[in-house]
Amino acid sequence: MSLRACHNSTKIHVETASFLVVRLGDSYVALPADGVRGILTQDEAGHEQAVTAAGTIYQPVDLAERLSVVADLSGLESRTVLYSTGHSHGAIRVAQVVGLTDVEPKDCLPLPLQFQRDERNWFGGMMLYQDQLVLILNPSWALGELADVVPASVGQSERMVAATSKAVGGSC
Fold it and tell me: How far is CA 83 from CA 45, 65, 109, 126, 156, in A?
């Protein structure tokens, strides 16, 4: 019997994490796609402080301000992403919705050592998307759930980072 006659094909199922990539100014960030509840144009979102969709009130989230990024949110590509963590619901204005992507764990990178302080709670990792470096947002931080957290002890911080990493797919 030759080796050609005995060919077994095996498919390996690789788990992926889905992300919505958005642009704020020159910065690209990603939100875990499972929390996206809708994407609205400026006209659909209106000019109210909060957006109500399907009976849920989404509070405005100024992500550009939270990240200290200069972003023109009045352009034609500007959108409002309706996002929910289950606990909080936010209407996040972005300059552009770039796309939806599935990422394999091997393509998710941890934050570099330069990220040593609060930003470890802001981001769960990073990845490349269309030749752009994209920071993966921690949705709880993005919606302000972690804004009022008092400084934690070292043990609490480690548990929070571990929980945050699991929430966004490991280091991704």
Answer: 13, 17, 24, 20, 27
Handedness of CA 152, 154, 155, 158 (dihedral sign): positive
Residue 127 is encoded by which pair of tokens?
A: 């990845």
Q: What is the pLDDT of residues 48-106, one digit of tens each?
A: 789 998 999 999 999 999 999 999 888 899 999 999 998 899 999 999 999 999 999 88
Residue type, 62: D
9 in a structural domain: no
Q: Are strands 123-129 and 96-103 parallel, antiparallel or unpaired?
A: unpaired
Whether 7 maps to a domain, the answer reads no
Helices and strands (H, E) in the chain, number of each type: 5, 10
Give dist(CA 73, CA 42) in Å, integer.
9
Q: How far apart are CA 122 and CA 132, in angstroms?
A: 19
SS3 125: strand
Q: Tell me how far apart the alpha carbons of residues 63 and 60 are, in angstroms, rounded to a whole number.
A: 9
Q: Give the Cα separation of 89 and 85 in Å (integer).
A: 7
Find where tokens 């947002």 sit.
Answer: 137
With a cut of 50, say whether residue 31 has pLDDT above it.
yes
Q: Is residue 70 part of a domain?
A: yes
